[in-house]
Amino acid sequence: MKNIKFLLLAILSLFVIACSDSKDAASATEQVAQTDKISIFFVEQSGCGSCELLKNTFKKADVKKILDSDFEVKFIDISKANTLPKGAMEPFGTPTLYFVSSDGKELHDPLMGAKNKDDLVEILNQIKNDYKAKSAK
Fold first, then answer.
1. How do residues 65-82 score in pLDDT, each as one tens digit?
2. Domain count of the fold of the chain
3. Computed from CA positions of residues 60, 64, 67, 73, in that sequence, does the dihedral angle turn out positive or negative?
4. CATH code at 70?
């Protein structure tokens, strides 16, 4: 199961980089590697009330400050045709957050559902601190 999750994250990472607004995938990969920020793949779908709640939580000052300094958020709308690569396993529900390092490693189990500000701040700080501790070794 862990291999399937890793494969899904790798495919999603490559797909999002390929579809990014950057001029080419190489410059997008280089940009993420230079910033060494943690990528959050925010998987959503049209009409998802929980997705909107979580997006609103992302806009709150405490959460936004952490996201701006240590994370790069990439939104993936699975309700649009061809959003996920063909053959990729879709998440079990939305919203789902995937946390991936700049070198493509999964940093935390996927986070599903809306979260309140305090819970999200705690989770983001935990992931950030764990990542920095592992990077320092």
1. 999 999 999 998 887 765
2. 1
3. positive
4. 3.40.30.10
